[in-house]
Amino acid sequence: MNTTKTPFLDTIYHLRTIEQVILYDKVITVSREEETDAISFLETEYEREILDYPGMAPEFNSEAALWASKTVYLAAQLLLYREHNIKDLVVLLPDYKGEINASAILSADICLRFLPQIIMEMKRIDPDNLVIPILEKHLFQFHYSAVGFEIDIEKIDFEILAANDCLQQLYIDRIVQRKAIKFTESDFIKKQLEIGFGDYRKIFWAQL
Amino acid sequence: MYFLEIKKEHKDFFGSIRHWDNLKVAFETDTIWIKDFSLEQIDAAEIQQIPYKTIYELKDNLLFEKGKLLPSRKLPSGLLWTPILCALPVSLPKFNHNFFGVDQKLKILLKHSEDIKEAIALLVDYEELKLYIESAPKYRLEPLQWVVIDKSALIIGSPLLPIKGTTYWIDNNFLIPTGYNFEWFALVKILQGKLNPSEENIILWNTDNSYSIISKTHIKQLSISSFRLTFS
Questions:
Q1: Which stretches make up the MoxR-vWA-beta-propeller ternary system domain (chain A) (predicted)?
Q2: Which residue of chain B comes nearest to A179, CA vs CA?
Q3: ipTM score assigned to the predicted complex
Q4: Do A54 and B228 touch (CB under 8 A)?
Q5: To the nearest whole angstrom, how far is the Cα of B138 from the nearest Cα of chain A?
């Protein structure tokens, strides 16, 4: 295995560039320096992505982005090296402390969009893994990252979408792109889809 | 049941109704009889245009002139009915070996056309597009491609965006304004071979018969970022 001085940063970099999780070692601590570097890397990535976001994209939220990248990193670590007990897990995977708004959701999504696949892999290995409910709880709050994956739709609060046009449009786009039929049960989502499709519903999404 | 009678020397006037293949024709010594008109056909403009004709209606074996109350004659017996396509054969003019007009040229013109074609391209002003695209859903942009022409954008694909603009339909890499077609549209393949032999370009026609050549390599996927990066 390659050796690196910045395992966290390298993992996040690979995740973003080649969409693969590469873990270098069993390292669960992240140095302050790496955090700063990761934030500036994630901010560049965010700036690149908002070019394609509709309307005015919200500001980059470094706190949320860092929290999400660490969550994904640790989730991957825990998938591979499982020796912590439940008390450690809560410390390792803390809740997001700041306010959850459009800026936080979109900044976190830069990394958090890969979390549902890690959870799926965990479930495949051991459905009773205690990490799973903790990660799922995070996804209920940041449900934009979970669109199209198995998630209890009733625990989702769609009201946060109405507050920001950019996030709302991105959310609808992701539902259409991933053909997340389950998410269309919500009346709010259904209405937004109808507005967007107009006469062409059959062309864009025949099964709906 | 209607019958049409006409003298043999006026046979050429049937050219306009020869394609109604339900009609039957019979020949007498110097007259021609036609029958089996449908109700629509007997009132059609094509029939009314035929001169020197008499139209009869058959009731109780008597022929009443159309619109008259008294019978004027009986239907002659022993008529031999044949379908109109066999009865009036068409002969094509012989090839003219003495034709020397090969250096004549055709001017390619666009004409109004009644044919309904699906619009496949939209030419919109930059400002109009900006209003829509900045908040457009991604799935509406994904099936589309675009290319910039001066201050306008040509969007190609289907379904098109709900913006005001000029629409075009496509035929052999020619984008032709909707509602128009070439005057000599049968020559479109030959024209394509002349203007765009390697088919690497798309040719945008204007209603004033001018055209612009657009290289296919300049046409890009439409997206919000593509738009923002182009006009910034």
A1: 8-208
A2: B139
A3: 0.81
A4: no
A5: 6
